[in-house]
Amino acid sequence: MSRIVLGFTPKAGAIFATILPQFILPGDSLWRLLLMLCAYEAILFTWLHLYGYLLSRAGQSRFGRRIQVWLQGVTGGVLLALGAKLAFEQKV
User: In the chain, count of helices (H) and strands (E)?
Assistant: First the structure.
């Protein structure tokens, strides 16, 4: 069974440490920060569920299967190209 933990990723930590402080004034209450954190989590939760739902629906169709195969091919090609570039890169 998987457990969803929102807001405990390095990216979220970077957002909380760099972006949120500019919206908090020295005299603001803790409730303002908590409300902003809850709003961020609600937006993130909604986006991830919508994204997952749309990908799930697309994967169930025949058209979605073709897109999945195409994306896997493109991703594999990009990774191979990056690996080749790294293999032939000159050391300084």
Answer: 3, 0
